[in-house]
């Protein structure tokens, strides 16, 4: 098969390279000239374990090339971004998807398969993409096979999970499903789950919404514990000893291209039926502000002047800052306080990020950990000797216990302020 993958980002590139690894001829299409140039020169532009090695092999084998323009293929896989619109319910912006489909149409021939991997709003495949193909003169399910096959991989483990995870094959017709299964059976060892396109779309969105709602519950528990003077992390540990309870853990907010985005696609489709999802989004969106207020409280308590931010990515051991709550926290601190703010992240290279650990913490009164990078899990007391005051606010609960360093986390937030009278008294 010859496969064209449109969009060489965090999902499109690993998918393209995986097909190339399994002896398929793959052409990767991207609008960014620098991305195309880097890939053809043998250099990946995103951080993902194993991806650099496999790109090198794919180029050497001749199975992969990157370019700006489309060409004819047997399979067209669309893996372009679907951000939120700025409307009332932050609905799904299909601009890039529709543009990709429109650019694909001139190259389509009977028997081709068009696969949407982009995360999309419910009924997009049937109500938006199918009419575009029909208007071009194709009969979907007979001339062209249209499938929605959402990605279900964890950044940092993409190359493994592409192969071993189950895969939903959502076709508009049974024939579309069968053609989609043929494509992914090239490398997927997990189950190929047959579904309609609508079920596949909503299933993907609900997988991430489920996690978002449960994280919101944990974040609300952190606020409850702060108010009542009860360690929320200990509460979670105890509750999770129940055989049918699995509480998530709180944090500084929710980021990434899935959890912070996908629930809105469901909300926009049926706002009257989604009060729980909407409330969860509000809770998780409130966390950056909550973290900033706690930082202000602690800095006032210790008369601090400098805060060192550790980690700006939305999750550990990746370079992805999309929708990261750390960005909002930094912006709020810089806008609302006179604190000196230094920023350190070993996975992100930006002019405004301090590349040296020691320089980042020098004369700091507080280190605020916002990402669970592996590097932060092995720090020692010696790493913080140049701090002016040795206080750490660990929102991800990854810093080991350190002698003579005061560590606050999402469980003992109430210990940050001198005024314990703020705790809510029990009702008479």
Provide a concise account of the structure shown.
The chain is an alpha/beta fold. 38% of the residues lie in helices and 14% in strands.
Name a few traits of the molecule.
alpha/beta, 8-stranded mixed sheet, 428 residues, 38% helix
Description:
The chain folds into two domains: 2-199, NAD(P)-binding Rossmann-like Domain (Rossmann fold); 231-422, Rossmann fold. It has 13 helices and 13 strands. The protein has helices at residues 12-21, 33-40, 51-61, 95-104, 124-135, 158-164, 174-184, 197-228, 232-239, 262-269, 275-302, 325-336, 357-361; strands at residues 2-6, 25-29, 64-67, 75-78, 113-116, 145-148, 167-171, 192-196, 306-310, 340-344, 366-369, 391-394, 406-409. An eight-stranded mixed beta sheet has the order 3-2-1-4-5-6-7-8, with helices on both faces. α1 crosses α3 (51-61), α8 runs parallel beside α11 (275-302) and α11 (275-302) crosses α12 (325-336). The radius of gyration is 24 Å and the shape is globular.
